[in-house]
Amino acid sequence: MPPTPLTLDAALRDAGSPDPQVRGQAVRCLAPALLAALGDPPARLHLATAHPRGPAVVTALTRAVDDPDVAVRALAATGLGQLGEPDILPVLDRWLADPAAHPDAGYLRECAAITCVLLGLAARPGPDDLSRTTHDGALARISAALRAPADDLRFQAAGGLAELAGRAAEPALCDALRVEPHPRVRAALVAALAELDPPGPDACALLAPIAEDPRAPADLAFSAALGLTAARDPRGGPRLLDALRRPDDRARALEALAVLGPAAPPGAVRAALKLARGWLVPAVMRVRAAYALARMAPETGLPLLDALARKTSPAVQDALADARAALAALAAKDMSRTPD
Q1: Closest C-alpha to 284, from 256, 254, 259
Q2: Considering the entire predicted model, what is its pTM?
Q3: Which has the least CB within 10 A, 28, 245, 272, 290?
């Protein structure tokens, strides 16, 4: 976690400032500063109890949940979520239920959804009653948010449900995508389905028409293609090939083509080879292209990886190590999928 602008002591001091900007900065820093002081521990409930100043931090954040400034209230709630304080959950209900179109209401709704996810993740590992109650409460709120009237809340709920429920979220996400009219929320639902490990047949049946639709926005179709690829479904291949022409998407497209391997679309080997041999292509990107080739056409890609190994750049050497590890992992996964 990057260092916070304020120390823990300074954030506690400024949390009571009459200036809302100073107060907001302090409230924003309270949870991260405490977590940093604790060594950035994994999420769990009641993290603050492990530090002598923890109770003071929780008190300051709890007080700030009723702050007259909307931004301070929202930041206080997410801070309590970061620290795994389940008492904030009932407070979030009135924010989640507020249907107002005003930006302040929308901001509080989105922060409430984020806080629910943080608490659900913090409660997941614990076998005790409090952990189960907290996790189930957070999951129920996010599941309900997926059907909320507010677009901003449905947007946050899409990814949040995938984080909390994993593969179990697929039916609800599929149902939501089938009826969702808002483009931004549809994009969030597609991204959430694409992040499942892996998307199932129902999800792929929804993702494939999006990836194959020539009228679909490029970013939406690419997201759908990545989800299909995670399921080893080659129907997203042409969109991956298109994405090689976009610098911002190129690395993920090469990674996805590597996953498809021999099932990559026609033209993928030629396009990756052009990148792997391009003099003006950054060396790390050339490694990624050679890695994809090693999966699609090993007789071409593996010698290119060996040739790139002669470069002494630490970044290139790190990329090569990552590529060889990924090749081994994909080969092992291929073997596990091969029928006996």
Answers
A1: 254
A2: 0.89
A3: 245
